[in-house]
Amino acid sequence: MMKKLIVLSLILLSSTIFAQKPDFEKANTDYSDGNYKMALKAYSSILKEGKTSAELYFNLGNVYYKLNKVPESIFYYEKALQLDPTDKDIQNNLKFANKRTIDAIETKNDTGLAKILNGIISSFDVNTWAWLAVIFAFAVGIFFLFYRFAARQIQQRLFFALTIISFVMSGAAVFFAFQQTGVRQSEKYAIVFNKEVEVRAEPNPGADLAFTLHEGTKVQILEDFNGYYKVELTDGQIGWLKTSAIKSLKRAKI
Question: What single-letter DSSP state applies at residue 254?
Answer without folding.
Answer: -
